[in-house]
Write a structure and sequence with these properties.
The protein is an alpha+beta fold. It contains 13 helices and 22 strands.
Length: about 450
């Protein structure tokens, strides 16, 4: 079965991370839980006997399972049928739809981010938007999977979305034509001054090898004289744990990359440099990593590893803050549990859960005309209902330092547009590398 192969071979760490179990063992039911199971069975019988309409057993059982998992955290869930198909789609890297990353936020479908170049982005949908209706049908209070299914469809077909955007008095409608979403994981460009920019959109298969190939191609184009490298992880929701480790290993030749620690035996795993690649590419080349609130999970692993080892300067805005690991536990040939089983930690022992990765240099995206409104309602892990609490018990005030004003950044989006700058964060990183000597960036 393809699902069985998938469960064996694919390790994912995303904002909805999926990591297959390596040592899955079924816990024995605590004897003290017997009375609680009796209550559950009694409720089942009462519903079957007395509910106004006849209720299907599958619906009741799935509802009970969903309820148990929903009481744990936002990333634990039951997967079957279409849910598993979407997992395969995410791994394969293409599907027909809008190109949106969404979450359920207090009953509302909220956009985490549109994929770059997707139909949703081209239609003007932005991170932080709420989708209230699909083709005129109210979806508030419904099921996220159902909303996602409605947004998917054959390429070339149209769908109408009703959008509520903070800062606007009234909702507005957007017509989007579905397309084939080719999730191109790695793109690159050599900028003037022989500064390379590698953009990693997700951590799917072979991303480590793709980043290596991108570096080699730019180095050849620059005749071997690379003066800087920008690794752009903005709006990257994560992906394969192995690929996150592999990509970190490209830029490190010693030390810890990431560790995960769980309660169950076999869930504590250490990942070190030199385990996937020997040596270090871009050695002695100044390096900046761009992150933002959409940089999640596997992306945070890479940013945290390069930051802790002083290999790169982290620039942008505080990342999403998802520091938990999920294990894919098969239930049957076509169903599984996605269960939170561990937390992961950066080389210095820092948990990114809630707090995320703090940039070394905070740089707001001034070229976004909606920056002020988005900053007020930016969605991160700490905003999700039922999220795991950071073990250090961080206060909200300690997590919101990135909202403080910086006198260096006063230009408006309109003023930047007049100067031909449509991506202020990237432009700031490029200018930083152009005026900095190789030995003064990201050195111990």
């Amino acid at each position: 079965m393809r699902f069985a192969a998938l469960a064996r071979a694919t390790a994912l760490v995303t904002a909805v991370a999926l990591i297959p179990a390596t040592t899955a063992s079924m816990a024995q039911v605590d004897g003290r839980a017997g009375p609680q199971f009796a209550k559950l069975y009694a409720v089942y019988n009462k519903i079957k006997a007395n509910y106004v309409d006849q209720v299907d057993d599958d619906k009741l059982v799935k509802g009970a399972i969903d309820g148990m998992l929903a009481s744990l955290d936002p990333h634990s869930s039951y997967l079957d049928g279409s849910d598993l198909e979407r997992l395969e789609t995410m791994i394969d890297g293409n599907y027909s739809g809008l190109g949106l990353s969404v979450v359920m936020d207090d009953g509302a479908v909220k956009v985490v981010s549109p994929f770059r170049g997707s139909p949703a982005e081209k239609a003007g949908i932005k991170a932080g938007d709420y989708i209230t209706h699909i083709n005129g049908k109210l979806i508030y209070g419904g099921d996220l999977d159902d909303a996602v299914n409605q947004m998917r469809g054959p390429a070339g077909t149209k769908i109408n979305l009703s959008i509520y955007r903070t800062g606007r008095d009234e909702p507005f409608d957007v017509s989007v034509t579905r397309g084939v979403i080719e999730l191109e994981p790695v793109t690159y460009k050599l900028e003037p001054g022989n500064i390379g920019v590698i953009t990693v959109n997700e951590f799917s298969r072979d991303v480590g090898a793709d980043v290596f190939a991108a570096w080699e191609a730019m180095k050849k184009q620059a005749a071997g004289r690379m003066n800087g490298l920008i690794l752009d992880l903005r709006s990257n929701p994560g992906g394969s744990l192995d690929e996150a480790v592999a990509m970190s290993d490209l830029f490190l030749d010693q030390g810890r990359i990431v560790s995960q620690r769980g309660r169950a035996k076999g869930e504590t795993i250490l990942y070190d440099a030199e385990s996937m690649y020997r040596g270090e590419i871009a050695e002695h080349v100044p390096m900046i990593v761009l992150i933002d609130a959409g940089t999640a999970s596997a992306s945070e692993i890479v940013a945290g590893a390069l930051q802790d080892h002083h290999r790169a300067l982290i620039m942008g805005q505080r990342s999403f803050g998802k520091g938990s690991v999920q294990t894919l536990l098969p239930i049957s040939k076509d169903s599984a549990l996605k269960l939170t089983t561990a937390r992961y930690y950066t080389p210095s022992g820092h948990s990114v859960q809630e707090g995320g990765i703090e940039p070394d240099i905070l740089v707001p995206q001034l070229s976004d005309p909606d920056l002020a409104q988005k900053a007020k309602f930016q969605l991160r892990e700490s905003d999700l209902r039922g999220h795991l609490v950071n073990e250090l018990g961080l206060k909200d005030e300690a997590l919101e330092q990135d909202k403080q004003q910086d006198p260096r950044f006063k230009l408006t989006a309109a003023e930047l547009k007049e100067q031909g700058i449509d991506d202020f964060q990237l432009n700031y990183a490029l200018q930083t590398l152009r005026r900095t000597s190789p030995r003064s960036v990201a050195q111990k």
